[in-house]
Amino acid sequence: MSDLLVQCKLYVLHSVFNHSWGIRTVINLQIPGEHASCGPPLTKSGFTYDPNVFMANDIYYYNFAWPDYGEASLSGLLDMAKVISFALQEGRVAIHCHAGLGRTGVLIACYLVYSLRIRANDAIRLVRKKRPRSVQMSGQILCVQQFEHYLLPQTIVFSTKEPLMLTKDRKTSEFTLRQYLYRQRAVLHGVEERAFKLLPKIVYCICERLLKLCGCHQTCGLDVKIRNRPFYKTFLVYKLKQAKETGPQSSDEFFPNQVTALPMVEWRDPIEEAIDRNLESVSRITGSTNGGSIPALNVHEAFITDYENLPDDKQKYLKQLRTDINQMRDAISKLDKEDDPHVLTGLLFEWLEGLKQPVLDREDLSTIIGRCKDVNTCIVSLEMEDVILIEYLLRFVIRLRPLAAHKKIDIIKRLIAALTHQTVSINGKILPVKDFPKLREGTCSQVINFMLRLVVEIQKDMVKPGRDDTDVIVQPRRLRIKAWK
Asked: Which PANTHER family match (predicted)?
């Protein structure tokens, strides 16, 4: 008789769970041994069924022990919501507690807050509409409301001084780079959580879309893909920072007050520069030379555009897009279909220039000025999050081809302005047109030279043998550093 019951259970698993309902994951919120005298007898597992039966039939099983009538921590609820989000990628999810009303209803409501960015009361109403009498007690309602206040401020992408619909507290609407990365880690899960531990996802999505429009997203052996291994661990600055933590550091001379205008560093191979200039000339007539929909020249033009003078309809569209990304989880996917480089670069600058504090503050600029000739020493003196972002942006500039060297320097200048929250002169125009102080010419020259030296070091590191992140191995060239008159 027992063998017959086992066969019946297996039949139910295969026919009902897998085929009829498409359930691929079971989440159990009970504590082993809970309510032992209520309902069918318990198995050795402490539940009325054996979880091993599910796992043996390729159905994922999770047990989050949550006491009946008890409270779950907010971080614990967030972890459960992330598990549900991951599990739904495989198929449907079955969630249960004892009666399937209290704890189950709370978790589903919290997941709706997490996935749809809706208010707690709206989530509870939606759950009760599908499952009457769910989320029964006032304490359970309060739990969902507290989860909303805990989570939604962390989902804000674009910093703003204005109170948002998701949070009325202006303090939570503004954040620094480090605060944003902390919040981002709390919201993302799985591969994305690891990949974007030290890099803002919004910056990655914008830059990769720009490169894809130009057909440059797989060039120079520098393409950055989301893999199981975080791509930033292959960055030069990451390896230098890690080496600093494990090895002794030599003393370095530091001259923070020596600010003079310097000639630009020569950072490109003459042959490579000549090729890019020729291809750039061709792209003016034929469009993109890399199979993209636009030439890299269009991206350069977007970078040096005065966004205060954009047409009203485009400014309104930019504002609406920022609002959507702040309030809807999947709105960031709109960037994958955006074809206007002015919109994409506008979003990039809004994010960088909207931070509560600049990525490169005065102390960082002082460090760069004093140590700009020694790139390695300068890098290890800066914060990890700052240099990871800087290297990613420089890799973006390297990959943007074909584009002459002076145009790439224009883009680097505009990025420096956004990173420092100061204005710079580009081709006679002061950018950005905002209430920022002007970056002194000598300081700007030092920072540009530091960036160009870092570009050279990145290119040298790229061609080292044994690199597992490069798709194209580029033959090393002799790179010279000398004054560019």
From this structure: TYROSINE SPECIFIC PROTEIN PHOSPHATASE AND DUAL SPECIFICITY PROTEIN PHOSPHATASE (PTHR23339)
